[in-house]
Amino acid sequence: MSGQREKELYESWLRCLREGRAAVLARLLESSSPDLQAGARLFIPEEGEPMGDLGDPSLNRLVIERAREKLATLYPRSETCPVSLPGGEQVQVFFDINLPPFELMIFGAGHDAVPVAKFALELGFRTTVVDPRPAYATGERFPGSRIILADRHSWEEKVTVGRRTFVLVMNHHLERDRAAIRFALNSPAPYVGVLGPRSRRERMLEALEKEGVRFEKEQLSRMYSPVGLDIGAETPEEVAVSILAEVLAFRSGHKGGFLRERSRDSIHQPL
């Protein structure tokens, strides 16, 4: 690859880092073929065309497919992976993955949402608070969070939920909570946490069914209600820890149990 194209590739990667867009930078580390040069790179953005060349069209295709598969998962990790070429050559490719910050979207600006938003920001989430009440959804109460003043009739216009958005429903208002559940489960959100006991959730789902709203099994599998891990939380701050611990466990594919009960020695996610 020419020096100019190499520069353009690297600038595209840096732009993704600055703008918080998802992309993969694949770098050839080792190869059993003398025709493939270590250090060759291939840039694969989540949106847009790949750029670069690893030295073999088949290798480019395989690496692009692997990168797309990784970007399609919720929380892909950077790692070195072996790749086998059709001719039998073995190569080692490092997949460097950049993801935008995950978003935590809270429907409800009550007092118990305040520590959730605060802790979520400290954990690195982009945090959004959706509520129709200007006296509650304020920058003073939720510093650092994006505020969307909107009722259920304007969510379609004002609220965008992506596939890396975790939703929390905590309006403490049955009608708004029902509407938020309906909105969130019909969105790409992978996780929809609903505050309150199981009996309240069942009443809301029954009411929605009477309105003609029925959810598929896949949609209901994304709803976590009652939301949070069972840590005996009582205060708003403790409840916030319980909720966010579950969100982190879900994002990482963990169950959220006691570490001492794990069978393997490592306490970290394997790379």
Automatic annotation (TrEMBL):
- According to the UniProt entry, the coiled-coil residues are none
Which Pfam families does the UniProt entry name for this protein?
A: XdhC_C (PF13478), XdhC_CoxI (PF02625)
Report the residue ranges that make up the XdhC- CoxI domain in this protein. Answer: 16-74
Q: Where is the XdhC Rossmann domain?
A: 104-247
**What PANTHER family has UniProt attached to this entry?**
ALDEHYDE OXIDOREDUCTASE MOLYBDENUM COFACTOR ASSEMBLY PROTEIN, XANTHINE DEHYDROGENASE SUBUNIT A-RELATED
Name of this chain's protein: Xanthine/CO dehydrogenase XdhC/CoxF family maturation factor
Task: Write down the species.
Answer: Planifilum fimeticola
